[in-house]
């Protein structure tokens, strides 16, 4: 089970990714959650204390690791082929939910020096996680569509595209879906989040039909989740309608009832 969760910033993709990863653990899977953002959001969602989460260095910024994997000993020349088998075992953090977390981070564009070795490491690691590892993998993708242009999600089995019932988030969802088709991702689905009323259901359902993307599920707006986030509590511990809906989505993924 290799799942990537994408969408516009702020639509709730990190919460959905964390809830899915936690659900898969309860189903008996060994789960690796991958955060493609250097901020500690996914770590916090998985119950890692802020004091610990803020100390986790993204792999894309660990130049000692990058150099050890890619250096040839010649300036400006780096390896294109190298092993990353040991990276997960060395760097993954076990969270209170039982999910193992790997903070991958993002590779910044030109301006901060040559990023070619970092890009090579991230691409190799992404492929290793999806193709070679036996764990269930849930990836919280970088917000927006740029990461898809870099091909970072091309190996996943399921791409979940999260949207709110708003024009801007649905517009980003449409672009993401188009890119997943061009990358030949095996299965891509829409997940509607923060649904409040019938008009929201209608908006997301109509959008899915117009674009041609299968609608995997709808997650209701949950005031308990919003309150937990405002007060610094773990929203996964809120046994409300949102978590239950995400578990239902997880069941569909596991049973193939799509």
CATH hierarchy class name: Alpha Beta
Q: Which architecture would the CATH scheme give at its second level?
A: 3-Layer(aba) Sandwich
The structural domain count equals: 1
Largest sheet: 8 strands, mixed
Per the CATH scheme, the topology name is Rossmann fold
The H-level CATH homologous superfamily, spelled out, is P-loop containing nucleotide triphosphate hydrolases
Please state roughly what percent of the residues sit in beta strands, choosing from under 5%, 5-15%, 15-25%, 25-35%, 35-45% or over 45%.
15-25%
> Structural class, judged by helices and strands?
alpha/beta
- Taken from the alpha-carbon principal axes, the silhouette is globular
Helix content: 40-55%
Distance between the termini: 14 Å
SSE series: EHEHHHHEEHEHEHEHEHH
Strand order of the largest sheet: 3-4-2-5-1-6-7-8
Q: What is the average of the pLDDT values?
A: 87
Helix count equals 11
Return residue spans where pLDDT drops below 50 for at least 5 consecutive residues. Answer: 110-114
Concise overview:
The chain has helices at about 15-25, 40-45, 50-55, 65-70, 85-90, 115-130, 145-150, 165-180, 200-210, 225-230, 240-255; strands spanning about 1-5, 30-35, 95, 100-105, 135-140, 160-165, 185-195, 215-220. It is an alpha/beta fold and about 260 residues long.
Would you give an account of this structure?
43% of the residues lie in helices and 17% in strands. It has 258 residues and is an alpha/beta fold. The chain has one domain (2-255): Rossmann fold, CATH 3.40.50.300. Strands 3-4-2-5-1-6-7-8 form an eight-stranded mixed beta sheet, sandwiched between helices. The radius of gyration is 18 Å and the shape is globular. The two termini are 14 Å apart.
């Amino acid at each position: 089970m290799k799942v990537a969760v994408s969408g516009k910033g702020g639509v709730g993709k990190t919460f959905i990714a964390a809830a899915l990863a936690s659900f898969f653990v309860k189903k008996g899977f060994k789960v690796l959650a991958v955060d493609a953002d250097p901020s500690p959001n996914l770590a916090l969602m998985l119950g890692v204390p802020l004091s610990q989460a803020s100390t986790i260095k993204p792999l894309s910024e660990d130049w000692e690791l990058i150099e050890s994997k890619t250096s040839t000993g010649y300036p400006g020349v780096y390896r294109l082929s190298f092993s990353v088998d040991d990276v997960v075992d060395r760097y993954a953090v076990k969270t209170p939910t039982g999910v193992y977390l790997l903070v991958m981070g993002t590779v910044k564009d030109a301006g901060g020096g040559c990023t070619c070795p970092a890009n090579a490491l991230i691409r190799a690691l992404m492929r290793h996680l999806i193709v070679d590892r036996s764990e269930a993998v849930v990836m919280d993708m970088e917000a927006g569509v740029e990461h898809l242009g870099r091909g970072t999600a091309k190996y996943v089995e399921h791409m979940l595209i999260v949207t709110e019932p708003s024009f801007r988030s649905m517009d980003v969802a449409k672009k993401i879906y188009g890119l997943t088709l061009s990358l030949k991702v095996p299965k891509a689905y829409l997940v509607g989040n923060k649904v409040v009323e019938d008009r929201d259901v209608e908006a997301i359902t109509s959008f899915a039909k117009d674009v041609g993307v299968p609608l995997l599920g709808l997650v209701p707006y949950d005031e308990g989740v919003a309150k937990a986030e405002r007060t610094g509590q773990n929203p996964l511990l809120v046994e409300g309608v949102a978590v239950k809906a995400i578990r239902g989505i997880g069941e569909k993924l596991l049973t193939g009832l799509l």
